[in-house]
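User: Teach me something about this protein's shape.
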Amino acid sequence: MQTKRETQQEAAAPREQEAAPRMATTNDIDFSDILDTDYLLKMCDAVTEANKTRPDVMRSDLLAILKKASGEGRQKARTLLLADGSGINCARRISWLQDQIITVLYEFVCTHVFPQQKDKFAVTAVGGYGRDTLAPGSDIDLLFLFQPKPAEETHKAVEFMLYVLWDMGLKVGHATRTLEECIALSKSDMTIRTAILEMRYICGLRALETQLETRFDKEIVTGTGPEFIAAKLAERDERHRKAGDTRYLVEPNVKEGKGGLRDLHTLFWISKYYYHVRDTAELVPLGVLSKHEYHVFQKADDFLWAVRCHMHFLTGKAEERLSFDIQREIAEALGYHSRPGLSAVERFMKHYFLVAKDVGDLTRILCAALEDQQAKSTPGLTGVISRFAHRSRKIAGSTEFVEDRGRIALASPDVFKRDPISIIRLFHVADINGLEFHPDALKRVTRSLSLIDNNLRENEEANRLFMSILTSKRDPALILRRMNEAGVLGRFIPEFGKIVAMMQFNMYHHYTVDEHLIRTLDVLSEIDKGKADDLHPLANKLMPGIEDREALYVAVLLHDIAKGRQEDHSIAGARVARKLCARFGLSQKQTEMVVWLIQEHLAMSMVAQTRDLTDRKTIIDFADVVQSLERLKMLLILTICDIRAVGPGVWNGWKGQLLRTLYYETELLLAGGFSEVSRKERANFAAEALFNALSDWSQKDRKIYSKLHYQPYLLSVPLEDQVRHAGFIRQADKAGQALATMVRTDSFHAITEITVLSPDHPRLLAVIAGACAAAGANIVDAQIFTTSDGRALDTIHVSREFKDDADELRRAGTIGRMIEDVLSGRKRLPEVIATRTKNRKKSKAFVIPPSVNISNSLSNKFTVIEVECLDRTGLLSEITAVLSDLSLDIQSARITTFGEKVIDTFYVTDLVGQKISGDSKRSNITARLKAVMAEEQDELRERMPSGIIAPPSTARAATQTEKKADSPA
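Assistant: First, the predicted structure itself:
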């Protein structure tokens, strides 16, 4: 692909060639296109001449001239960014432009406003601006240096300058200090110390800046290197913790996130402070960075600056989070194009994460050099004692590695060169001894990646060591993450290398594919250690009985290894796994299990979340796929690990309950335990059980309330819930309520249940769904039942929002009241939904073409309609309203959200209880549903009833009674 940025991403690990911005190779940038400074000075002089007696007009005209020059200069910088693609050049152009504006303003103030203040103070840039770089929306940080006892007019001159800059619309941070104040504050405040470290002269009395720099080096920097480094690294760690502590978040913070610009700045600060260098290039002759590593530093800096400048220009503000909303536009601005299997935005983000990884490598290399330097330079007796206390110790059973303060280090620098298998062995020995990694060891690993070739990949010992790491009972995810960060994992398993730093452009997946796989393994390890009993009681119970841990661990690591390809990643992944299993030394039986698990790794999740688990055909079809109990156990555990590792908040107790239900039902069938008793007989037994359970009621009430229900209700609702519902209906009848709601919540299952008793109506579910949307409730499941006296008993499950049961029940009560208000006509549905959605921004980032799938083979009794589209408030209400318009009776619904996408499944019949047949009717259903999902106007959909409390028509009730009574067992 030819783009504006034709450079290659150089790294030892195999990685896709990505479009990358062209590097800024020189500081000699031609600034003449940005601003004609001489002309600007003449304009300012002309303003003075024309307004000598009108200071207010003079200031106003000056402001207009400077504002125009600044705006035009920044626009020119944006044009040049699009032309040459260099982020660092753009940041330098804006910095230079700001320098000129400030210098012209200083000259104006000290010549025409406060002429006595010429060379009485200095204006210096600090922070990022001090590094001679400025993003379009960044703060302009200034330090005004004063002589001892500055005059009142000096303060006024500075004040005049600041107000003009503020009135230009610039965000200016400032401090006014004498040299003594700067030195005193630098001793106690690390932030001020860092700011002065980056100080750069702009205009004014240069001697002040020179003196401060000299005194700062002598009085502050000398002898305090270790203290400064420790503070900066601690600051970095805290920043990472706040940002999510991974460089692989799919909406990264370009400035503050792990692997972002601030990490590069931290390297620069440490280098400048410790090695007394003014430019990173000076670290090469000092032996801290190799030429290649310096080149990587330059490329990372330039790329991150390009992304940041585009973000600021695009949003018109200091936006530092690379959100989904702007990723597409920035990918386009940087010249990325789609390739088979990866969209342009995914290729751009993959490059971003590879650059973030490079920044991590550079941090490790610099830390190793600093530690080595510190060990050598500690003088006198202290140094002798320190080196004695910190000397390395032998590791039992290893001659290649030693222990240094709880970290594994190399016994000699050429360990890897002598035996490349030692690269894998390093991680194995660290695992079995519980050691962290010495930065020097990881630096040497990164520099030795070329030794990992086909011979090493096929080596039996290397693969044995890898399998030992993967299936370790200690912390396999930690070791594999270190292997991945060092580039070893992608080099040892090239197929894994292809998904390193790969993101998926959706709101469901929070991490890159490689990070997701390692997190999945972390969850498996947690279950394996028996630490997940509270979250996954069933998986915790099953794990010790798994016959083949090795196969499960390999399947978990590889389940998404074929993401980013044109074909289905499950099928392609199974093919990749078959090849790798042989290399890893797995038997044929183990290989077949791994291949099957990867090929079907989404099956259990999709069936559990999008199918009616009370429908026997669902269980039979799933059991046909699984075929054995061992497969079922392993697939359940893999599914749990996969969902948990998608991101925070994705897993909840409701999903756990669905998976357990599917497991138990399928286990029963595979074990031959499905009842052969007819459906009608089982329904009669269930009605009798309900009658017996109401033993403390009058005989009359027991008969009435145990005969209210049809077969679907009696066969799918647990007896304890039937008893609860009977009490609820009887209470409503005694109170004369045609409409009533009942709520309960369950913290373990993370759902809240709302039961609605109402006169039946074809649009009932649509109205309930709309009321829930208006109340801000997210429906995950709906069971719809009709009683023999023509009423509807609908059970709605909504996602739980509060941890505390009392808070959640109050919320549920509010939702229940909203449902009652809408059903009774006290509130009109269109208005309450409009109130909820009026400030909703439509997501422009994602495009999901609406799809409708209608199947008569997924259920013996019902037609199953599955819809998939972009989520929005009130969508479920609109879809169910259309189904009602089409004279379809919804028996149950499964509502599933995957980030920005919804997959909703409806089990329906026509009004006489039959499946939907006929191509024209199915085509009409598809067209109407696609129209509503695409938010097209639909007159029929506008006719939402304001309330449905009126009794249903006799015909409707009769039809329902007839339909339910005659429904086949």
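Now, about its shape. The longest strand covers residues 888-898. The chain has 42 helices and 16 strands. If you'd like, I can walk through any region in more detail.
User: That's plenty for now, thanks!
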